[in-house]
Amino acid sequence: MTTTEAGPLAIDPELAQMMDAVFAEYRTDHPPTGQARRDEQLWARLDGLGLARLTGSEETGGSGAGWFEAAELMTAAARHAVRIPLAENDVLAGWLLEAVGIGADSAIRTVATLDENRMAHGVPWASTADRVVLLWHVGEQIRTAEVDRDALQISAGVNQIGEPRDSVSVAGDLLESLTSAPAPAAVVSELELKAALVRCIQVCAALDTAVALAVEHTSTRVQFGRPLAKFQAVQNLVADSAAEAALARAATEAALSAAVHCGWSVDEIRFRVAAARSCAGHAASVVVRNIHQALGAIGTTHEHRLHQFTRAALAWRSEFGSVRHWDEQVTAIALQVGGDRLWNLIAG
């Protein structure tokens, strides 16, 4: 995510530099492993800097920042391949509790939407969270409440990069005993869009970093007496990747900027988020394929950093809705508005 002082997602450049420095320093001291687990020391530092609940209200102990700052924080973490539930805790679970009037404190949370069997699958970071914010249907109504992790039945799982993606099961008598609040349909819809955009931001950061690694490698790696970047076939691979990554980033920034300036409930936001997810999902296919071809065998090794970003992009693009799901959303909305209004929807 590009967040310059003069750009559309403007934040304080010193804040952006501080965020990047925190994750860069952490990654230097803690090389990545195959399994992502919450690092208490890192979380304590983020909490001390006011970054753990960056967008939470100041009344509940948050920092009162906005989505632009949150996007930069998520980007910085993804750029350094630091796996930590910042988005899940802050802009998803924390926001949901405040939206329904429950309020949030310094506990680390994630969100789980239960099915008719009182189960949720692929829940991010459930096995390492302090609490899980549940959403479930009671007749036509949706209720929400938070539960201590230890009160739930959790089966651990992971995604392609080792982040916890767990199955959560809730006993029926526990649900009935919870002090819950109604979650209006508008709040649930907004949560869905925010979760989708979170993954968009992370995918874009991973793709941009993969392209940067390819540019560095092909510019310095000499083959047959000249840098790889001098070969037209390699140039095409990297250029196509950079174009796809830029398209995904532009669509994501447009969706986020519109949401912040116009609100998450306006009609066109779903189209913009769906378009961003579609662009990011398809861009991941092109970038991962091309960049691995450009780097050759070295890019497939565990020692090289490339896989930390290409596998992340592929993992994240399928969460909170598949590429096909968001393609279908774009199509359905375009058909619904018709030809007369489609261009206005695209152009904003």
Report strand order across the widest sheet.
1-3-4-7
Which sheet architecture does the biggest sheet show? Answer: 4 strands, mixed
* Large-scale geometry: globular
Find the CATH superfamily of the largest domain.
Answer: Butyryl-CoA Dehydrogenase, subunit A, domain 3
| CATH fold description of the largest domain | Butyryl-CoA Dehydrogenase, subunit A, domain 3
Order of helices and strands: HHHHEEEEEEHEHEEHHHH
**What's the helix count?**
10
Structural class: alpha+beta
**Poorly predicted parts:** 2-7
The proportion of strand residues reads 5-15%
At the first level of CATH, what is the class of the largest domain?
Answer: Mainly Alpha
Number of beta strands: 9
Question: How many structural domains?
Answer: 3
CATH architecture of the largest domain: Up-down Bundle
Radius of gyration: 21 Å
What is the helix fraction of residues, given as a range?
Answer: 55-70%
N- to C-terminal distance: 20 Å
Mean pLDDT: 93
Domain Acyl-CoA dehydrogenase/oxidase C-terminal: 199-317
GO molecular function, one term: acyl-CoA dehydrogenase activity
Cofactor: FAD
Protein name: Acyl-CoA dehydrogenase
Feature tags:
348 residues, alpha+beta, Butyryl-Coa Dehydrogenase, subunit A, domain 1, Butyryl-CoA Dehydrogenase, subunit A, domain 2, Butyryl-CoA Dehydrogenase, subunit A, domain 3, 3 domains, four-stranded mixed beta sheet, three-stranded antiparallel beta sheet, 10 helices, 9 strands, 55% helix, disordered N terminus
